[in-house]
Every structure is written in structure tokens, then in C-alpha cells.
Amino acid sequence: MIKFLAKGLLRDRTRSFFPILIIASGVMLTVLFYSWINGYAMMLIADNARFETGHVKIVTRAYKELIDQRPYDLGLMNVNEKIEILSNEYPQMHWQPRIYFGGLLDFPDDKGETFSQGEVIGFGIDLFTDSFERDLLNLKEALSNGNLPSRQGEILISHEVAEKLGININDVVTLIGSTMYGSMAMQNFTVSGMVRFGIQVMDRGAVIVDIADVHSFLDMEDSASEILGFLPKYDEDTTFEISAAFNKTYTDEEDEFSEIMLPLRTQGQMEFLLTALDERMGIFIFIFILVMSLVLWNSGLMNGIRRYGEIGVRLAIGESKGHIYCSIILESFLIGIAATIIGTAIGLVFSYFLQYYGIDVSSMLKESQVIMSATMKAQVTPASYFIGFIPGVIASVTGAMISGIGIYKRNTAQLFKELET
Amino acid sequence: MALIKINEMLKNYPIGRGKFTALKNIDLEFEKGEFTGIVGPSGSGKTTLLNIIGSLDVQSEGSVEVMGKDIKSLSSRQSSRLRSEHIGFIFQTYNLLPVYTVFENVEFPLLLLKMPAAERKKAVLGALEWVGLIDKIKSRPAQLSGGECQRVAIARAIVKKPDLVLADEPTANLDAENSHHILKTMKKINEELGTTFIFSTHDAKVIKYLRRKISLLDGKVDKDEILNGG
Questions:
Q1: What does the domain layout of chain A look like in residue ranges?
Q2: What distance in Å separates the CA atoms of residue A207 and residue A106, rounded to the nearest whole number?
Q3: Nearest residue on chain B to A421, judged by CA atoms?
Q4: Cα angle for residues B118, B123, B129 (degrees, 5° grid)
Q5: Cα–Cα 20 to 30 A to A187, which of A77, A315, B73, B203?
């Protein structure tokens, strides 16, 4: 019987072509949207992990309360010892101390007076012990001019800051801030290079210096704002497990300077953003199923009218209404499968294209405070190959189920009359 | 034992607050192997009678037994089974499935009976041989003449070797030559396979083939005659 129905579907294109066209289009959009959302989420996670959150982050409880202000005066002490302990306890992870600070970047003229000045966000990272941070932040690729710092006292500044303040390579600039203990801090740095990350919030005003320089600049010897932890590959469940275990051991509710570990998802706007993405995907699939079901219901009704004679003959020949109803659902299932395969294939082609090339969204991110690449790319995952089957097949079958109810309303007693007209 | 027994049958249709009586006081019996025509003007109740015999409809009063089964007591599923196993239908407008070939159209009732493929093929080829269309098995209905389409419809009706074939105006859309061809084919099947045929018709050409003619007038049996049909 399945073979018989499949033959009918293949030969009667009006019965299969329109539904396949609709479902395949919807499935294509679903796959593309899913891959897009996936790419966006993964990019969001990767970029934020690199620049801000790590896969997990250790701070003091006091720092956590004011984390948006990055209060390095509430930072971690005895950092070298802490990293040693962490490395022993979590050998699969890499730990990296960082100091974030805000300050003024002053560029003097020939006479030593301020030529230009601007606010900057400082990144104190380990530039010399190993290449981990340099690789993590893609500093080599981000370098738009000059070189990476090769010795203490050198600074990288964002391309935009350099252009705005009129700074060139090898110029000497002064960072002005306040020490961990509240007194004024000033230190000269030589500009070794300029960077452009393609992340608006970074490119607007970031400066990067070696953490040892920041220690002396901010009077923070063996201290750090935060210690970031990185897994070999991000896994949300693991970050929560590790954080729970760490906090159980080290977090003391009575001590505001005790450490607390924060998984990536719980930091800043990440929870909101990632939840919103999950919800949007769910809403999209729900709307897709609803709209497609309505369209296919309508299409099924039209098809039912067109196949009125056929269904009448089948009833007269002795096929039960239930059997006809099931066969229509089976047809819709076959259509759903075929359309989903076609739609998924087309959706994957577009997704792979966007995974490779991406779309430049820098113009939309000018005022953004979220760390996000200016090029949005899709990300095809194994789930991209299957995600379309849920809405594709459900919509097709639901549409047929609703429209097929008409079969039960058919008055068998009128069959002869109906079939003669 | 009679194949069909109808006693004191009455059929009403509700019209507004009233009723329209389509058939009344019908007492008929049909034996196996009959070749019977139900004749009468439009509105005389021919199609209603065929509907009830074919278990597509039920009587309002009286009793109707087909193959020993009380039509009124059958569920929808049981009615379907009775039709699929014992009754073949032939329609005025053929009602072939246009996307399927001649072979597949004739095969369809056997699929419903879940007959194995090899047996199915044998039965379909046998039925098509009966109607002289063995050379058209791969054709689609659109490629056939009206007469050929009706012969396919006959093959579809007899392929499962039913006890009873009900035909509603089977020659109404055919020219004289094709009508005679169709009637000869049905007569041959009736004689050689013993299949019971009941027609509704007002086609004069059909009358000379009948062995029994039941005339309906205003929903009642006006005459029930035995003829020397064929």
C-alpha cells in the first residue's frame, strides 16, 4: 500500500509539489535560522570567554557584588599560589590571571604637554610567560600596525584610539589611573602596535599591557582582578559542576574576600542572551509549525476537494474511512520526509556558506556594550542536519490530520450521486 | 438461499421538518447469478435502492439482508468490509484513479484485501483478459476511450471475484457500440463466473440483455418481470 501511495504522490505533482515546496522552504529557513542562532551563540560564548568571562571566572565575593565596575581594589591576592593550587585541583583547565582597569590615555606633544587624551579600558594580561593569552585573543591576527610588545613597558592600543588621539607606533603615551590603594598612578608606555579585533566594544577603547607592568602601575603585586579558567573545549555542564565544587570548598559567606567561581553562563548578560536565543529558537519552531500547519491544512482541503472523486471511489470500493484517513496521513508523512530532506539540504548549503563567509554587522554594533564579533557567522552542528525534521514532518502531518477530518463528514449514502456528477 | 432479501423496506429522507419517501413497500429477493436491471424514470428510487443494497446507506424501516448480513446492524467498518470482500461497483462516469495505470486501478481493491503480490498480479491479468484490455495494462485512464475506461471499471469491480456487482447506469455515457460491448462483457462474466449483476438503468439498449427487470415508479416496485435476456 505504501508503494501504491508513493506512486500516486510521485505521479500527481499537484498533490505533492505544493506541499513539498512549502515545507522545504520552511525547513530550509529553520535549518538556516538554527545554524545562524547556533553560530551566534557559539560566537557569543567564544568571544566573551576570550575577552571577559573565561569558561569560568574566580573573583572575590566583594568584587562580584560590583563586578560591572571592575573594582580591582577588591581583587584577588596571592594569585601565584592560588593558580598553583587550581592547576593541581583542576589539571584539565588552564588558569590565567587578568587585571581590568579603566584609565586615561594621555598623549603628549613635543613639549611634554597633553596633545590628546581619551578614556580607555585596560587589559593587563600575561604577554610573556607563554603564548596562551596572545593566542586566545588572536593578538597576531588582530595586529593592524606595528608589533606585539616584546619587552616590559610596551603597550598595544586599539586602532580607533590611535586614530582618535593621533598616536603612531613608537610614540610614548602615559596611562593615568589610581592604584589598588586609591592613590594616583601614572606610567609611560611605548606604543608597539595597534590592534583591531572586529569587536566594537574592544575596538572603541582597549589598551593591552603585560600584567607585570600593571602590577607595578596599579601597585598590585601578586594580585589580579580575576582568574579566568579555560576548559580544552567549552562544556556548560562541566563549568557548573566545577563551579559548584569549588564554591562548596572555598566560598565563605562570612568572608567578603573569599573566592567565588562563576560559570560563563551566569556572568553579565550571558544568561539573558543565551536563554533568549534558546527561547527564540523554540518560538521560531513553534510559529513555523503553526503557520505551516495552517497553510498545509488549507492545501489539504483544496487537495481534498480535488481528490473528492478518488476518495469517494475508495469508500465505495470498500476502503474504510479510517484507512483512507491513515493513508492521507501516511502520504503527508512521506511528503514531510521528502520535503524535509530537500529543505535541509538547501538550508545546509546556505548555512555552510554563512559559516564560511559570515555577514558584516559592524554598523549595528557601534554602540554595543556586548562583546561580539562584527562578522556574524552560522555554525553547522550535527543537530543542524536533524532540526528540520521536527517542524517539517509535524507540520505536514498536522495539516493532513486537520484537513482529513472532512473524510469522516463524508456522507457515504450520497456516493453514487456524488460520483455521477 | 437468496443473496439479497428485502422485506417491507421503506426509505425516508428528512426535508426541512418533513420527510421525503424515496422507497416504500419494497419486497424483493435476488438469487445468486442474476442479471437484473432496475429501471424507472429519474427520481423513482433506483440509486437509493442500489445504495442500500451496497451498504452505502441504510433503510428507514423494514429489513435488508445482503449475503446474510443485516445492513442496518452493520458498523461503518463492517459495511466497508462487506463492500471490499463481496461487492463490486461500476459507475456511470467510470471513476478510475487518473494517476494510476490500468493495471494499478484494477489492482487497488486487492490491495485493500491484502492479497499477496503474485496472486494479485494473476487476478488482475485475469480480470483484464476478461474485459479484453490485456494490451493496455500500462496505459493511464486519460489514454483510453470511454468504452475502454468502463471496461477497466468492470475489471476493477470483478477482480476480487465478488458475489455481487452493482452498476449505476453503466452505459449512460457510452455510444451504442460500446454499450453493447460492455453489456456482452458483463453478461459473459455473469454466465461464466456466476457473478450477480444488478443495474440501475433507463437505457433501452440494456433491456434486451436482462434476465429480470424490476420497474420502479414513485419509490415502489411497479413490475418485476422475468425476461429472456441475452
A1: 2-48+271-420, 56-230
A2: 12
A3: B93
A4: 130
A5: A77
Average pLDDT over residues A399-414: 74
Q: What average pLDDT does the segment A375-401 reach?
A: 84
Residue A286 burial class via C-beta count within 10 angstroms: exposed 0-12, middle 13-18, buried 19 and up: exposed
Kindly report, residue by residue over B52-93, the tens digit of the pLDDT: 999 988 899 999 999 989 999 998 889 999 999 999 988 888
Q: Which residues of B touch A419 (CB under 8 A)?
A: 91-93, 95
Give the residue carrying C-alpha cell 483510453. Answer: B144
Residues of chain B contacting A413 with CB distance shorter than 8 Å: 51, 56-58
Cα–Cα distance list, A60 to A86, A130, A240, A288 (Å) = 15, 26, 18, 46
What's the maximum distance between 2 C-alpha atoms anywhere in chain A?
Answer: 106
Residue with grid cell 591576527, as numbered in its chain? A141
Three-state secondary structure readout of A95-155: EEEEEEEEEEEEEECCCCCEEEEEEEEEEEECCCCCCHHHHHCCHHHHEEEECCCCCCCEE
Element of type H or E holding B11: strand B4-15
Question: What DSSP state is assigned to residue A61?
Answer: H
State which amino acid sits at residue A107: F
Single-letter amino acid code for the residue at A371: I
Q: What is the mean pLDDT of residues A164-184?
A: 91
- pTM of this prediction? 0.69
